[in-house]
Specification:
Elements (H helix, E strand, L loop, with lengths): L1 E4 H13 L4 H17 L1 H12 L10 H10 L2 H19 L6 E4 L5 E8 L2 E5 L8 H14 L3 E5 L10 H10 L3 E3 L3 H10 L9 E3 L4 H10 L4 E2 L7 E6 L5 H12 L6 E6 L2 H15 L5 H11 L1 E4 L3 H11 L3 E5 L15 E4 L5 H6 L25 E8 L2 H17 L3 H11 L4
Parallel strand pairs: 1-11, 4-5, 4-7, 5-6, 7-8, 9-10, 9-12, 10-11, 12-13
Antiparallel strand pairs: 2-3, 3-14
Pathway: Amino-acid biosynthesis; L-histidine biosynthesis; L-histidine from 5-phospho-alpha-D-ribose 1-diphosphate: step 9/9
GO molecular function, one term: histidinol dehydrogenase activity
EC number: 1.1.1.23
Amino acid sequence: MKIVQMDEFLNELQVRNSQQLDIELDRTVLSIIDDVRSIGDAALYSYTKRFDGVDLDSLIVSDDEFDEAYTIVSEAFCTSLAKAKERITSYHNEQKEQSWFVQRENGVLLGQQVTPIERVGIYVPGGKAAYPSTVLMNAIPAKIAGVGHIAMTTPPQADGKVNAHVLVAAREAGVDIVYKVGGAQAIAALAYGTESIRKVFKITGPGNSYVARAKKWVFGDVAIDMIAGPSEICVLADETANVVYVAADLLSQAEHDEQAAAICVATSDEFAQKLSVEVGKQLVALDRAEIAGKSIEAFGRIILAQTLEQAIDIVNELAPEHLQIMVQNPMEKLPYIRNAGAIFIGDYSPEALGDYMAGPNHTLPTSGTAAFSSPLGVYDFMKKSSIIHYTKEEFETIADDIIVLAESERLTGHAQSIHVRKGNVE
């Protein structure tokens, strides 16, 4: 694993970010979106054959397929899934917002009405791995919010079926319907609707670069949670950190994807040297060693900082998706962390804990967007309406001020709507 100085890494990062614009990718995604909008289901069947190698009879997962999934998964999986569901539900229950109203003098009522989004679509990736945990992380907050209809899209396997673990998770989390569609075509179908797929009002969930770009292009016609990039982890480590733990945690993200980023910001050159060796040692034992190896080679870095304060500055500049604080007295450093999607504190809070069982959501802002974005939550599936009620008496106390402001903007129609209530117009 390459060891670099801060300036060297920031230069690398700047070059990498400047190369992210892919015009050809956008052309492909826009073409797919246009096809789905134009010919609906026919485009979905065609792209599923082309990209997934599957001829489907139906886009919708049947009840028989759900029943079959329960015969395939193990009892241990169902038990662990139930534990994860309970913890995720408990955490997200704390996020639910309530409507509120304030009674002012003279009968004025102001407030905010909070209502769930009626229909949402969640995207669950397939391909390199199956992600039942992503089903829980997207569907559970939607159910808590009170969403009326949850649709899920996910790519089919080579046999034309959806991964059994994903289907069981969908049923347990309360997903209403599952479609065997992946990629940009799935996002387009959710955004605009087809003969089989009903249009939704918001799309959530991670995906590959095609999915991410499709979400970007449909935004505005439909809401989205975020445009997620490749997964990333940053470990803040001093000389007291356990090098074996840090190496394992870096590799836990590197195995996601060849584009995943695994970064350690270290304050000790000796620790950095040991970590580089340890990563190589553990890498060869991974089942997904080829994927993780490419990730480490391209995007894995150990950044040397002169002081812990400088290391924290680097972390805040990176705004990582996952941040692990593995230094002496880690809780003391928490107030100085301004930008991170999820923060894991201490030796026994690895990122994998957050992926599956801790409770907080694992759908997180990536690519530096944690500087201005938040994890997926119940609030993403709710919307707010302002409530305003004035009595005649209180209206008349501010009517003239409204007229002055409206006329200053030359919006005489606005002023007129006030005049007529004052009786100034015959």
